[in-house]
Design goal:
The complex is a heterodimer. By secondary structure, chain A is an alpha+beta fold. Chain A has helices spanning 13-22, 43-47, 56-62, 73-90, 107-113, 116-131, 143-152, 161-165, 183-191, 197-201, 205-223, 253-273, 305-321, 357-373, 389-392, 421-424, 427-430, and strands at 4-9, 30-34, 37-41, 67-70, 95-98, 101-105, 136-141, 242-250, 276-287, 292-298, 331-343, 379-383, 393-397, 456-467, 488-491, 497-510, 519-528, 538-545, 548-555. Chain A contains 17 helices and 19 strands. The termini of chain A are far apart. In chain B, the strands form 3 sheets. In chain B, strands 3-8-9-10-11 form a 5-stranded mixed sheet, with helices on one face. A 4-stranded parallel sheet of chain B has the order 5-4-6-7, sandwiched between helices. Chain B has a two-stranded antiparallel ribbon with strand order 1-2. In chain B, helix 5 (107-117) packs parallel to helix 6 (131-144). The longest helix of chain B has 14 residues, at 131-144. Classes of the chains: A alpha+beta, B alpha/beta.
Chain lengths: 556, 223
C-alpha cells in the first residue's frame, strides 16, 4: 500500500516563470514555445483557443496578442525555488518532482496541522503570500494518483486511489511526472479498446507483463493506484559555516597562526564527511570595535585542511599588518564559509603524476605572493582568438577560471584546461608559418600577424613618428598604402633612428558592421639602426590608427 | 663473466664526478631546448644556480621552455609587458608560466616566496637590490634547488648569457615580413662555466621557436 502523498501543483509553471522573468502582466495571454510547438500556455490564452501541441502560427491565429516565451528549463527551476522553500517552511521531506510540482509525505503535516484539508489550505495560503503564485493541492495514496488529484484540486480518501483513478481516461498515463514517454503504449491501449484506467487496471498483471514488458507493468501499477517508487526526500542544505569567538581578542600574528588551525580542520572535516571539497572560501572577521572584514579566496585546486589554515592565517596576518586598512582593535570573531563546493573526488590525485607535487608547490607559492601583493598581482596568460598580440592574450588572476577573451583556442577542446595542451608540444613549430597563423584557432582572423610575435607587448602603446628622407611625416592612405618611404622613426619622444628594413603596411578592419564599434588600423614592422656601439638593432611593431603611429610591441 | 658485467655497471666515469657533486640532493638539471644546451655547463639549468640573461627577453623565455613542457613551473617577476604569445611560440607552456608584473617595493620577498615553490624564477629590475638581498636570494635558490634567472646584470652569477643581435631576416624595403633574427649568445661564468662558450642562433627562428643558425643557408625574403 503506497504512503499518503500530498502534491502541490502550480498550473502552467513554465508560463508563470516566464511571465515573471519578462515582467509581463499576470493576465496577459502567454505561451512557451519549444521547437515551434506550444508546450505550455496561460489560462487567458487557453480561453482563446490556444492548446498545448499547437504550432506557433496556429496559436497566434487563435490569439493574435499572444506573448511567445522561449522554453528555458533553468529559468523554470530557478523561479520555482521560492515555492519549494515556502513549502519546506511548513513540512519536512519535500521532493521537487519537476519545476511546478512538489510532492511531500502527507501523514506528518496532516497530524500536526489537524487534518489534511487544513494542511492543503495552509500550503495554498503560504505559497500565495510568500511566493506570490497560485497552486492547487491534491492528496491521495501514491504519487501518480496524488498528481492527478492535484490537477483537480481533490483530496482522495485513504484506500480510495483505485476508485478515483478508475473512471479517468487512459491518456492520463501521460501525466506521470517522472518523465517516461508512454505515448506509444497509451495509443496502443486506446486502440485495444481500453479507454479508462479502470479497464486497464482490471487486466491480470501476468498478461500485461507478457504482452507489454516492464514498462507496461509499471503503467499497470500506476493505474491500479500502487506506487511506482517511494518518495526521494530533499534534505535542506546543511550550514557548514564554522564560527569562532576569541576572548581575549587576537591582535598578534603568532596568536592568529595558532588559532586558525583548529577551525580550518573542523571545516575540512565537516566538508569531508559530506564528500565535498571547498574551492571558494569566504573568510570574515569582526573586530572588537565592530569593524567587519570579508575576503573570498578562490582556488584552482580544492582546499585541503592545511590549505584552509594557510589562507586563514595569511588573511588574518594581512589584515593585522596592513598599513592602510588595519583594524583598530583585535579580532574577536572569525567565520569560515565554504562559498563554493565540489564533489570530493575532484581532490583525487592523478595516478601518473598529473596535478602532482610541482603544481601543488607552485600553487602554494603563488597564493603566498597573492597574500603579499593582493589577489590581482599574480597572473597566468590564456591565448585566444584575435588579431592583435594584445587582443589574443588575456591575463587571468591566479585562481580564476582560465577562459580566453575571444574565441576558443581549439574547437575540439571543450574545457579551458585542455585548450593549452596543443601549445605544449612541438606541434606549433611544425606548422607552415606562411599559413598566416602558427596556432590553430576556431575562427579565421584575417589580418592577424603571423609568428614570430613581439616579446614585449605594451599595454599602453608608445607614441611614434614615422618620417621619410625629406623629414615629412609618413601616413597610411585610405587604400592602405604608405604615403612615403619610411626613413627615420622616433619612438616615445626620443631622437629618430634610421630604418634598416621595413615591411607592411597590413591594414586591419574590425567590426565595421557595428555602429561606433568599428576600428581601422594598419600595421608595419621596422628594424631600427643602432644608436651607439653598445646597442643592438631593434625590431618594432608599429600601428597607425586615425593618422597617429604608435609602437605596439618590440622584438627584444 | 658475471664479475665483468657488475664492474661495467658500477664504474662511473670520473668526468661526470664534478657535475654530480654540484647537484644538490643529486637531482638532475632542468632541461633546455636543444640549441641552447651548448651554452650551459651540464647542458641544462643546474638546480640552485643563478643564471643571468642580458640583452634579450626572448632568450630568457626560450630557456624556460623545455622545463615547463616537462611539468616545471616558471615565474617572471617585474616584466609588465611580457608578450605571452611570443612565450608560447618559443615553446613555453603558458599555463605554467606565472607572471607577477608589478611586484612593487617588495621585490626581494616576492622572489624569495616564489623560489620556495616555483622551479624557475626570472627576475627583472634587480639592479636596485642591495648586495645583501641578492646574496640571500641566491642562497634561497641554492637551498631550495630552484634556478634564479635575473634579467640584467647580477654580480656573482654562476652563468651569464649575453645576447647580441646581428641581423633580422625577412623584411626588406616594404616587402616580406620579419621572420627570424640572427643572434650570437656568449656564456661566461664561474666554476664549470669558466670556459667561455658561444652559439650563433636564430632567436626567434621561423615560427617563433629557437633554432641553430646555419650560415650557408641564406635566408632572404621570398616575396
Amino acid at each position: 500500500m503506497p504512503a499518503r502523498v500530498m502534491v502541490v501543483w502550480c498550473p502552467d509553471w513554465p508560463v508563470t516563470a516566464g511571465v515573471a522573468a519578462e515582467d509581463l502582466a499576470a493576465r496577459a495571454p502567454a505561451a512557451v514555445v519549444s521547437a515551434n510547438r506550444i508546450v505550455a500556455c496561460s489560462a487567458t490564452a487557453r480561453a482563446q483557443g490556444v492548446r498545448c501541441g499547437q504550432r506557433r502560427r496556429e496559436a497566434q491565429g487563435c490569439c493574435p496578442e499572444l506573448v511567445v516565451l522561449t522554453d528555458d528549463p533553468d529559468r523554470d527551476a530557478r523561479a520555482f525555488e521560492p515555492v519549494a522553500a515556502a513549502v519546506e517552511g511548513l513540512a519536512p521531506g519535500v521532493e521537487v518532482v519537476c519545476p511546478g510540482l512538489i510532492a511531500l509525505p502527507a501523514r506528518g503535516p496532516a497530524r500536526y496541522f489537524g487534518g489534511e484539508a487544513a494542511v492543503a489550505e495552509r500550503i495554498v495560503d503560504v505559497i500565495a503570500t510568500q511566493a506570490r503564485v497560485e497552486c492547487q493541492v491534491g492528496i491521495a495514496d501514491g504519487l501518480f494518483a496524488a498528481t492527478l488529484a492535484a490537477h483537480r484540486g481533490l483530496l482522495v480518501p485513504p484506500q480510495g486511489s483505485a476508485g478515483f483513478l478508475a473512471p479517468l481516461s487512459i491518456t492520463e498515463l501521460h501525466q506521470d511526472a517522472t518523465g517516461v514517454d508512454r505515448a506509444a503504449l497509451v495509443d496502443l491501449l486506446h486502440r485495444l479498446g481500453l479507454r479508462t484506467l479502470g479497464a486497464f487496471a482490471a487486466l491480470p498483471v501476468d498478461d500485461i507483463a507478457s504482452r507489454f514488458g516492464l514498462d507496461g507493468v509499471r503503467a499497470h501499477r500506476l493505474a491500479r493506484g500502487l506506487g511506482e517508487r517511494p518518495l526521494a526526500r530533499r534534505d535542506p542544505p546543511a550550514d557548514l559555516t564554522v564560527t569562532r569567538r576569541f576572548d581575549p581578542p587576537l591582535d598578534r600574528v603568532d596568536a592568529v597562526a595558532f588559532a586558525s588551525r583548529e577551525p580550518a580542520e573542523q571545516l575540512h572535516a565537516a566538508l569531508a564527511a559530506r564528500g565535498l571539497a571547498c574551492i571558494r572560501l569566504g573568510i570574515s572577521a569582526c573586530t572588537e570595535a565592530g569593524e567587519e572584514l570579508h575576503r573570498v579566496w578562490r582556488c584552482a585546486e580544492p582546499l585541503t585542511a592545511s590549505g584552509i589554515a594557510d589562507r586563514v592565517r595569511w588573511q588574518l596576518d594581512g589584515w593585522l599588518t596592513s598599513r592602510d586598512c588595519r583594524p583598530s582593535t583585535g579580532i574577536t570573531l572569525l567565520q569560515l564559509t565554504p562559498e563554493e563546493v565540489i564533489g570530493g573526488q575532484a581532490l583525487q590525485r592523478g595516478l601518473w603524476g598529473e596535478s602532482g607535487e610541482d603544481d601543488e608547490r607552485a600553487g602554494r607559492a603563488l597564493v603566498r605572493v597573492q597574500a603579499m601583493l593582493g589577489p590581482d598581482a599574480v597572473f597566468t596568460g590564456v591565448i585566444g582568438g584575435g588579431r592583435d598580440p594584445t587582443d589574443r592574450v588575456r591575463l587571468v588572476p591566479w585562481g580564476d577560471d582560465r577562459v580566453p577573451a575571444r574565441g576558443a583556442e581549439d574547437p575540439l577542446a571543450g574545457s579551458s584546461m585542455c585548450t593549452e595542451d596543443p601549445l605544449a608540444g612541438s606541434s606549433m613549430c611544425t606548422e607552415d608559418p606562411l599559413a598566416g597563423s602558427s596556432m590553430c584557432t576556431a575562427s579565421p582572423w584575417p589580418g592577424r600577424l603571423p609568428a614570430p610575435s613581439p616579446s614585449r607587448v605594451f599595454t599602453r602603446p608608445l607614441p611614434a613618428e614615422v618620417l621619410d628622407d625629406a623629414g615629412c611625416v609618413v601616413g597610411v592612405s585610405g587604400r592602405g598604402r604608405l604615403t612615403g618611404v619610411p626613413y627615420r622613426i622616433a619612438m616615445d619622444g626620443n631622437p629618430p633612428r634610421r630604418v634598416l628594413a621595413w615591411a607592411g603596411p597590413w591594414p586591419v578592419e574590425e567590426r565595421w558592421w557595428e555602429p561606433g564599434g568599428g576600428r581601422r588600423c594598419a600595421r608595419m614592422q621596422a628594424v631600427l639602426d643602432v644608436t651607439g656601439p653598445a646597442d643592438d638593432p631593434l625590431a618594432v611593431l608599429l600601428a597607425c590608427e586615425t593618422g597617429h603611429w604608435r609602437v605596439e610591441g618590440i622584438y627584444e | 663473466m658475471m664479475g665483468v658485467g657488475v664492474a661495467s655497471v658500477q664504474v662511473t666515469p670520473a668526468s661526470t664526478l664534478s657535475e654530480r657533486l654540484d647537484v644538490p640532493g643529486g637531482r638532475p638539471s632542468y632541461p633546455v631546448i636543444e640549441p641552447l644546451t651548448v651554452l650551459l655547463p651540464g647542458g641544462g639549468l643546474r638546480r640552485g644556480s643563478v643564471i643571468a640573461v642580458r640583452g634579450s627577453l626572448l632568450l630568457l623565455l626560450a630557456l624556460l621552455a623545455e622545463a615547463t613542457v616537462q611539468g616545471t613551473w616558471a615565474a617572471v617577476i617585474g616584466v609588465g609587458d611580457l608578450g605571452v604569445l611570443a612565450a608560447a611560440e618559443a615553446g613555453v607552456v603558458v599555463r605554467r608560466l606565472a607572471l607577477i608584473p608589478r611586484p612593487g617595493p617588495d621585490l626581494a620577498p616576492v622572489a624569495a616566496a616564489l623560489l620556495d615553490g616555483v622551479g624557475l624564477v626570472a627576475l627583472a629590475g634587480a639592479d636596485g637590490l642591495p648586495a645583501r638581498a641578492r646574496q640571500s636570494l641566491a642562497a634561497r635558490a641554492r637551498q631550495r634547488g630552484s634556478v634564479l634567472l635575473p634579467l640584467g646584470q647580477w654580480p656573482g652569477a654562476d652563468v651569464e648569457l649575453v645576447c647580441r643581435v646581428e641581423t633580422w631576416h625577412g623584411a626588406e624595403g616594404g616587402y616580406g615580413r620579419l621572420r627570424s633574427r640572427e643572434v650570437v649568445v656568449r656564456a661566461v661564468g664561474r666554476g664549470a662555466a669558466a670556459r667561455p662558450r658561444a652559439a650563433r642562433l636564430l632567436l626567434p627562428g621561423p615560427g617563433g621557436a629557437v633554432t641553430k643558425a646555419l650560415r650557408h643557408l641564406a635566408i632572404k625574403a621570398v616575396l
